[in-house]
């Protein structure tokens, strides 16, 4: 398919029509997702004041990716990915609408919040590998795939920068149910984009679910580069990403703030993530990325320790920005390396193992941080995560000497 060559180098994946349609719809959908995530965290802490429940809610929303994600990758490699993504996006819209209705009617309870979060986690376990594995088909030139991955990550990070402050403003003016309703509507944008996408028939994996799954798992375990990078994603997300579960604790108890304070903390992390995506859009050489990824983990460890020690909001916002930058460079950089080297026939399975590791251990880290914070306080939990990540970076650095 002929494509325009007029796009700047950092945006070159947008010259592909299918990717532009996906990119536009996903931008709106991701903004709605961040608005819901902040509103849900605030709702949990407003109703219960429990740091442990914050960790539990975060955990059940992410943990299904660890257990279901790899199996979902095997399943989706055997089916039409675009149709499956349309179904998953529609079901996630229904979940958000149900959450809005329960909250607006006053029927929402902590148990229902956990249940609805678990439902979202199951849907996300299918949705995430579907979106990631389809990216390679939205660009007609494989050389543009790293740029497409970086731009796709920029949607997440830009929304992470804009969405939390917007959610804080909306929560100050209205309530959580409106935030959930807006998220439900936002899914329609990606559904419309997917309906307009034109894709040729794809080769589907053949064989039983078990054999298809084992083929992908063998590739990940027996390829040293893939195995090592997955372990790095595990460590960074079980430590550095745990801050997400604790931000309401810091916003209300440490900085004596409200939903707007929470929005600023999230927004600072989002700004760092956005800057990291812009950085990666220009630095996508897979041979150089592993060293950059290790340095980003080291930066994340330092940011965790600084945030744990700080009692001044401006300094904490700076630490959040550094943490957002480091975590995103690590996660997105790893995804670029993995997708650039994965065989097309195994892409769905390899891509599903990556988010399973990323979000699954993010869930475990959030749960652990929430439980530690409930007993010892949020700053102490953050400090422990920082020390563990710093030890991992030291071990990796020494092993490369």
Automatic annotation (TrEMBL):
It holds the Pfam family MFS_3. Residues 225-401 form the Major facilitator superfamily (MFS) profile domain. The chain crosses the membrane at residues 21-45, 51-72, 149-174, 180-199, 231-251, 263-280, 292-309, 315-338, 380-398. One of its GO terms (cellular component) is plasma membrane. It is found in: Cell membrane. The keyword DNA damage does not apply. Its main location: membrane. GO terms for molecular function: transmembrane transporter activity. Coiled coil: none annotated. The keyword RNA-binding does not apply. It is a multi-pass membrane protein. Keywords: Cell membrane, Membrane, Transmembrane, Transmembrane helix, Transport. It comes from the Bacteria. This is Major facilitator superfamily (MFS) profile domain-containing protein. It comes from Pseudomonas knackmussii (strain DSM 6978 / CCUG 54928 / LMG 23759 / B13).
